[in-house]
Amino acid sequence: MLWMSYKLALLKKVLKKYLIHMFGIVAFFFTLTLSIIALYKHSEFISELLPYGVVVFVINVFYLKIMRLSREDYEEKLKKEKVYSQKLLRSQKYFLRNAVHETNTPIAVIMANIELYEMEFGKNNILSNIEAATKNIYGIYDDLSYLTKIDSVNFLKQKIDLKEYIKTRLEFFDILAKQSNLSFEFFSTCKYCMVLINEIRLQRIVDNNITNAIKYTKEFKNIYILIYELEDTYVFDISSNSIMIEKPERIFNEYRRESYIKDGLGLGLTLVKTICEEESIKIELKSNEHLTSFKYFFNKYKPFYKK
Hints:
Blueprint lengths: L1 H39 L2 H79 L3 H25 L8 E4 H18 L3 E6 L5 E4 L1 H18 L5 E9 L2 E8 L27 H11 L3 E6 L4 E8 L8
Parallel strand pairs: 2-4
Antiparallel strand pairs: 1-3, 4-5, 5-7, 6-7
Helix pairs in contact: 1-2, 2-3, 3-4, 3-5, 4-5, 5-6
């Protein structure tokens, strides 16, 4: 009995959805049949069929009118859904922007108080753990903050010494590396490495690569950072003995993480790739059982001199 009720309900649903189309198909084939008969019969017989032809014509007009109204209703519904989706997206962006903004204050307060305590009483293991965790949160905050600004802020470019900038970011994340029993090894073969890029965008590239290296490098290993000159570019090369990336072509995909045991949103490298594409920065990735290496080729800053 239950099966029969389900069958009837399904049939009712199908008929409700396709009945008007079935009606149009019947009218079409009726018209086609009359036309074929008319081709092979005498004129007297055609005059007998004329009333039926008029009826079929009216049926077809009625069908087309219903279809037009149905399409108009569908377009109106689609328009309303589009407006609702846009409104929902704006609300989501507004909420995220405010949530990110409100998150900044407590993080800054925690960091400031840790620094003040250490200035007065010296280093403390418990506070060092809190500081490392806070800096990890700070990286996630910066990614979300960038996402909320990407459509509304004009990221102006400026001259930045790539070598010195990366050194400052390594200093910032040094405590996080030590908490994971890792250490940075920094090398540079160039005295100055001037590039033209927005600092916020550069920070997203550098910070995401450093924090990823800290997350995935095997314990008690070194993270190697090398800056060198190659033709018209400066290369930022970060490598370590870490988990092998099984599918390098997918690592920059949204929400992609090589290990779900590690914390994170899976957005960092997606942001990095987007920024690099917009800034014409070439990326090279190599990964095997012994070493994983990310290379970023920054175009040299070439000042324009007026003659």
